[in-house]
Amino acid sequence: MVSSICPRDIDTLINIVAREFPSAGIRITGRARTTSRQAELMVDRIRADRQEFLSTYAPRRHITEMDQWTLQNPNVSRDEAVARFDQIIRHAVARGDVVSNH
User: Comparing C-alpha atoms, which of 46, 74, 75, 49 is closest to residue 62?
Assistant: First the structure.
């Protein structure tokens, strides 16, 4: 049965769908992120394990730029790296590139 009730927000919709389809195992692992938050996560990932970072993200222009910048600037602070990654992400989004599926 299809309901004509419109949920008040996305969390309500998720709860309705999860209740209606309990065997689907619906799980929400993240939400939309700001470019700054995405930059933080990407900086932390590339610093922890560069190869994992490179295998996690598709080899797009902004990923290559992040990797090269990190290699050329190994001693910058996390804040400096986040600021640069945020700038790279903003330029990528402006070009229409997909940066993350979150």
Answer: 46
The CA–CA distances, whole Å, from 75 to 4, 58, 65, 80, 81 equal: 57, 26, 17, 10, 10
Q: What is the distance between the alpha carbons of residues 2 and 13, in angstroms, rounded to a whole number?
A: 13
SS3 content of the chain, % helix, strand, coil (to 5): 65, 0, 35
pLDDT value at residue 30: 62
Longest dimension (CA), the chain: 59
Burial class, 101, CB count within 10 angstroms (exposed 0-12 / middle 13-18 / buried 19+): exposed
Q: For residue range 1-40, list pLDDT tens digits in order.
A: 555 678 777 777 777 888 888 888 776 656 677 899 999 9
What integer best gives the mean pLDDT of the chain?
87
Identity of the amino acid at 14: I
- Cα–Cα distance list, 44 to 14, 62, 95 (Å): 30, 16, 24
